[in-house]
Design brief:
The structure is a homodimer of 123-residue chains.
Chain A (H helix, E strand, L loop, with lengths): L1 E3 L2 E3 L2 H9 L4 H8 L4 E2 H7 L5 H13 L3 E6 L5 E6 L1 H4 L2 H18 E3 L12
Antiparallel strand pairs in A: 1-2, 3-5, 4-5
Chain B binds a DNA duplex (20 and 20 nucleotides) through helix 3 and helix 4.
DNA sequence: CAGGATCCATCAAGATACTG
DNA sequence: CAGTATCTTGATGGATCCTG
């Protein structure tokens, strides 16, 4: 039994389940795997997300210690988001998801357009 | 660009995201990693799920070719669910989630009660 | 630039009862 | 045993406008 973020979990997988039972957070992490990003960059890269939702998700990820938020006291404002060490450790998880997704498409779907989908796992 | 289950995805991770953006499906897969299960077994093992929700999720997973449903024409009825080959290939994904969850607890949470959480990855 | 504030629509999911 | 059928609710996310 685990206790984290004010909740109890019977299995460590359910922690991951709970954190990422969400339409956006995985995508945000995905883009942050490339390196730190400004708010605006994330807003543009995480396709279709609204500002309100992005803000909420960033706050939530920060609260759960998966990302770090650094504010530069400038005008205009500059805020940079990056993965924490534990957030960075999600890379292998995303990698497995990425690879399974490709297997799944091969079996049950199709590639409709080639795009050099960012390879974040070359290392 | 990928096309699967009537939708387009820009990245294979978003396929996984889409399938498992859900409170229950990961847990169902998790229990099926142990082997085939009857409806009732899943109902008991996936803690807190209702019958209605379980049925919906099983149907959805079946439609997406992640699980197989076999009906035995008996009275009383017997229905057995199991992972398809592509469903079985989710094992490494779940494994990474499992392991990351443990790291996460070490860093940000605590183990409140020891329980020999099913180790499905001993192989 | 990086958000905050509102209002609103949707839908997943819970509760409960019923059935071939 | 393995589901269905309704009804209800709460949270997520969308749309739009505002601001230090």
């Amino acid at each position: 039994m685990y206790y984290v973020n004010g909740k109890e979990y019977i299995c460590s997988v359910s922690i991951v389940q709970d954190i990422f039972n969400d339409k956006w957070k995985l995508g945000i992490i995905w883009h942050l795997l490339e390196g730190e990003k400004r708010y605006k960059e994330l807003f543009e890269e995480v396709s279709e997300i609204t500002q309100k939702t992005l803000t909420i998700k960033l706050r939530d990820l920060e609260e759960k210690h998966l990302i770090k938020r650094v504010v530069f006291p400038e005008i205009p404002p500059k805020v940079v988001y990056s993965l924490t060490p534990i957030g960075e450790k999600l890379r292998p998880v995303l990698k497995e998801m990425f690879e399974w997704g490709i297997l799944y498409v091969k079996e049950c779907g199709e590639v409709t357009k080639m795009n050099a989908c960012e390879v974040k796992f070359s290392n």
